[in-house]
From TrEMBL:
The record marks T46, Y109 as: Part of a proton relay during catalysis. PROSITE patterns: DHDPS_2 (PS00666). GO terms for cellular component: cytosol. The lineage of its organism: Bacteria, Pseudomonadati, Bacteroidota, Sphingobacteriia, Sphingobacteriales. It comes from Mucilaginibacter auburnensis. Keywords: Amino-acid biosynthesis, Cytoplasm, Diaminopimelate biosynthesis, Lyase, Lysine biosynthesis, Schiff base. This is 4-hydroxy-tetrahydrodipicolinate synthase. It is an enzyme of class 4 (lyase).
Length: 293
């Protein structure tokens, strides 16, 4: 496969019960994902709770992840902020060793205009030593990166190589696929719609549920990319209820609960996030037993 085709996992950051980063558990998780057949990992995206880590903690997680992966699969670094100057400083100080690209979410809370979003990513593209993947997730950021802005950036900056799209707007996906330059990647950023997005021409997914179910998720994506939709549909439908549970009380609290049940790592999150209710945890256990039976 070409780079960033297939399944990328937006990896969680495991914490000990006292809130400290659990590097032993992070190692376990990375090995679990590689054994599960995923094509690449995104370190410290939204799912990695990057906004509640200090600068030193982020640096440590990036370095540790690269060391453990050791070139076996591709690595993407999540570097984002609603302060453009801060993103640029993070990129300038980032040790790129072991990493193949940067994933950067559009600015949250500020609600910039499309011109502001364009200028934000222009600054990132001009500063980045690595290829850049845009990330549009209006449900979290409060603003949408329009198809026109995505295409403008894709055409004007050769090192902007793709977009993780989590808007859920299929009209927007249609426009991106129709108007994008050759080689620009549309990547699903929303687990429930990965299958239909690949049918439109997306090259894979950056997934949350793949943290817990890497084999099932990556098998589904590969079946889609091979055009084997009969197999892909069966796998997709088998994951519908599990996917809902992962988001019913917020992410990554949900998928961390699943990982705890699977024995991969603990389910601790940092405030303002909290662990899921006992009722949801019980439903997770039932669903995992059904999927893995």
């Amino acid at each position: 496969m070409n780079k960033f085709y297939g399944t990328g996992v937006a990896i969680i950051t495991p914490f000990q019960a006292n809130g400290a980063i659990d590097f032993d558990a992070l190692r376990n998780l990375i090995e679990y994902l590689i054994e599960g057949g995923v094509e690449y990992i995104v370190s410290l995206g939204t799912t990695g709770e990057n906004v509640v880590l200090s600068a030193d903690e982020r640096k440590a997680v990036f370095a540790f992840t690269a060391e453990v992966v050791n070139g076996r699969i591709d690595l993407v670094a999540g570097i984002a902020s609603n302060n453009t100057a801060e993103v640029i400083e993070q990129i300038k100080s980032f040790d790129t060793k072991g990493y193949s690209a940067i994933l950067s979410a559009s600015p949250a809370y500020n609600k910039p205009t499309q011109e502001g979003i364009y200028q934000h990513y222009k600054a990132i593209a001009e500063a980045s030593p690595l290829p850049v993947i845009l990330y549009n997730v209006p449900g979290r950021t409060g603003s949408n990166v329009s198809a026109e802005t995505t295409i403008r950036l894709a055409k004007e900056f050769k090192n902007i190589i793709g977009i993780k799209e989590a808007s859920g707007n299929f009209d927007q996906f249609n426009q991106i696929m129709r108007d994008k330059p050759e080689g620009f990647l549309l990547i699903s950023g929303d687990d429930p719609v990965t299958l239909p997005m690949i049918a439109l021409g997306a090259v894979g997914a950056i997934t949350v549920i793949g943290n817990a179910l890497p084999r099932q998720t990556s098998d589904m994506v590969r079946a889609c990319l091979a055009g084997n939709y009969a197999t892909a549909q069966k796998l997709h439908f088998s994951l519908v209820d599990f996917t809902r549970l992962c988001f019913v009380e917020g992410s990554p609290a949900g998928v961390k609960t699943a990982l705890k049940i699977l024995g991969v790592c603990d389910d601790t999150v940092r405030l303002p996030l909290v662990q899921v209710s006992s009722e949801t945890a019980s439903r997770f256990k039932q669903e995992i037993e059904k999927i893995t039976a």
